[in-house]
Design a protein that fits this description.
Aspartate Aminotransferase, domain 1; Aspartate Aminotransferase, domain 2; 400 residues; single chain; 7-stranded mixed sheet; 2 domains; 3-stranded antiparallel sheet; alpha/beta
Length: 400
């Protein structure tokens, strides 16, 4: 027995979330009294709007919320999600084709669990959110990276996807707006990719968690709106975390064809049953209630976006394209590598991120967490004063 691993091979192979790891290190240093500015976590710094919190308080007075409810979600919430999906994603989907999950992350996990068999390949445009490859591999799938750098605005092309497609390719992952880059595919780009996926009989998992956080008059067109024929071969993933400043409420959902959603519902019935009912009641208020507070947060993000891009592009060796969505700036730092900085010579973005954290007391997530080295991700979902202070420290360090 001594030669048998205590962990299964599948679980032992899981990498720790790099974004959470960097954020935890930053918080540990802050707890030691160091004035660390952290751009690591993808989490709005705003409080959840009061009307949403009030709905949760009211839900605590109703004992029915203390009981089990349907694993797929409260009927009123599923109807609210269906209305949002018709409005924002152009898909008039029935509520019966929706499963409410513990955050968007569970929806991503379940999407790949219900679609993949061992060896099935998933095309993953890179840079990608750090959890996608892990969720694919936990479903015995094979993530296939398709990389687009700053010169392409971090957006892959149909030609790149076709070059990566094999007879084992089953799923295309499509994320617009993107975490970590903030890139938003244009309506024409989305349509072209959707038509290519449909023509090749691929499934599409579309993560739309940032669809309402867009700027400069841009609209994140859903791939199922651009190509309605995909609605029978697509799973949409979404949630209230980012748009409504509700990351800790853990409320997401997945939408898809009836047979796929039935499979996901069966899985969830054994995995965790229903999502916390208080959070579900709060989500109903978020989706159906006043949207003015949401617009105020979006405008604040827009202001910070412009500020951080301007300041990051003043750092020697940094090149930061202007993101059109989400709340991240993704910086090409290859121009800063290979030269002496603060007595050291970083050759990777991981080494550069460690150097910046130790010497400038600023936390950013290295590109290795999202694909190739040579990049840093900065979340601008933090206060204006801290946002400027952190970048100014980096400017000073790299100007030495």
């Amino acid at each position: 027995m001594s030669n048998i691993s205590r962990l299964s091979k599948k679980i032992g192979a899981i990498a720790e979330s790099a974004t959470l790891k960097v954020d935890a290190k930053a918080k540990a240093l802050q707890a030691e009294g160091r004035p660390v500015v952290s751009y690591a976590a993808g989490e709005p710094d705003f409080a959840t709007p009061p009307h949403i919190v009030d709905a949760a308080r009211a839900a605590l007075d109703d004992p029915k919320n203390f009981r089990y409810t349907a694993a797929v979600g409260l009927p009123d919430l599923r109807e609210a999600i269906a209305a949002k999906t018709a409005r924002d994603s152009g898909w008039s989907v029935p509520a019966s084709q929706i499963v409410v999950t513990n955050g968007g992350k569970q929806a991503v996990y379940q999407a790949f669990q219900v679609l993949l068999d061992p060896g099935d390949e998933v095309l993953v445009p890179a840079p990608y959110w750090t959890s996608y490859p892990e969720a694919i591999q936990l479903a015995d799938g094979v993530p296939v990276e398709v990389f687009a750098g700053a010169d392409q605005g971090y957006k892959v092309t149909v030609e790149q996807l076709e070059a990566a497609r094999t007879e084992r390719t089953k799923v295309l992952l499509f994320v617009s707006p993107s975490n970590p880059t903030g890139a938003v595919y244009s309506p024409a780009e989305t349509q072209a990719i959707g038509e290519w996926a449909e023509a090749n009989g691929l499934w599409v998992v579309a993560d739309e968690i940032y669809q309402n956080l867009v700027y400069d008059g841009v609209r994140a067109v859903s791939i199922v709106e651009a190509v309605p024929a995909l609605q029978d071969r697509a799973i949409l993933v979404n949630g209230v975390a980012k748009t409504y400043a509700m990351t800790g409420w853990r409320l997401g959902w997945m939408i898809g064809p009836a047979d796929i959603i039935k499979g996901a519902a069966n899985l969830q019935s054994h995995l965790c049953s229903n999502v916390n009912n208080i959070a579900q009641r709060a989500a109903i208020a978020a989706l159906n209630g006043p949207q003015e507070p949401i617009e105020q947060m979006r405008l604040a993000f827009d202001r910070r976006r412009k500020l951080i891009v301007e300041e990051l592009n003043r750092v020697p060796g940094f090149h930061c394209p202007t993101p059109e969505g989400a709340f991240y700036a993704y910086v090409d730092v290859t121009g800063a590598l290979g030269r002496e900085i603060g007595g050291a010579t970083p050759t990777t973005s991981l080494e550069l991120a460690d150097l910046i954290l130790e010497q400038a007391e600023v936390a950013a997530v290295p590109g290795e967490a999202f694909g190739p080295s040579g990049y840093l991700r900065f979340s601008y979902a933090l206060g204006d004063e801290a946002l400027v202070e952190g970048v100014r420290r980096i400017q000073a360090l790299l100007a030495e």
